[in-house]
Amino acid sequence: xxxxxxxxxxxxxxxxxxxxxxxxxxxxxxxxxxxxxxxxxxxxxxxxxxxxxxxxxxxxxxxxxxxxxxxxxxxxxxxxxxxxxxxxxxxxxxxxxxxxxxxxxxxxxxxxxxxxxxxxxxxxxxxxxxxxxxxxxxxxxxxxxxxxxxxxxxxxxxxxxxxxxxxxxxxxxxxxxxxxxxxxxxxxxxxxxxxxxxxxxxxxxxxxxxxxxxxxxxxxxxxxxxxxxxxxxxxxxxxxxxxxxxxxxxxxxxxxxxxxxxxxxxxxxxxxxxxxxxxxxxxxxxxxxxxxxxxxxxxxxxxxxxxxxxxxxxxxxxxxxxxxxxxxxxxxxxx
Length: 335
Prior knowledge:
Largest sheet: 10 strands, antiparallel
Number of strands: 21
Helix content: under 10%
Shape: elongated
Strand content: 35-45%
CATH class of the largest domain: Mainly Beta
CATH topology of the largest domain: Immunoglobulin-like
Number of domains: 2
Number of helices: 3
CATH superfamily of the largest domain: bacillus anthracis domain
Distance between the termini: 29 Å
CATH architecture of the largest domain: Sandwich
Structural class: mainly beta
Strand order of the largest sheet: 1-18-19-15-14-13-21-20-16-17
């Protein structure tokens, strides 16, 4: 069994839309320039690689009722966490430029941070015609002043150091043209599993981007600040240990609510992608393929960090790690 994408639900962003998105976000400068890093299978590290899932709704139900599920990225780890109640519901709203943005819910652990936004356009005609996608220019600032993620075009300055290797996923489950309601969900991945805990954080939305099918693009600049007054749900990290193979050393294998964070070490510096297959298999035989992956070359060895979409809420006692032709058993440590 596998947690592959459901083709009936997912619609990958068309090439012509991708090109316009590339022009808007030519470079999402998430990765630190201080480190030497090589991308292996980086699925979601820049806007050019974003997966945009768009569902045009026809309902005219109230805003709260119009939200047809959250964080439906076909990511089994996120879905397992949300189903277990890990997402925190909020009602923080801000209105500017005749658009109200509400943070409907969010989650945060060391591997992933996700936000589900509701947008209400006081002038619904902004959504008239065929809208292909809606996105936000958004930054997340922690209570200590650190900017953790900044999803912005290259035309805007970075406020933070960008020390986190981050992938990004975005989607529009709803764009309701008659009532001016839209939903924008986004998930940020830390390939190294090193997001800090959020405390008194603030989401800073600077712009709303609307892309129309006829090629027209509208950018609404403003200021929508959404404090995270409700703390993220608490969680415990599940640690796994493994016997070391001749070729692979397990540096870290930590289970978070949204995913398993794994770092392995191999000798030397590979001249090409070292492994064509990287996945874990749980006790039920379900396979979880590696997500965003980062490779850091050190002196004499290489670190490979990635996440797998299996939640700690699965309570797996053992996992089988498959890396190329190598297999390593991961065993949960005693509580």
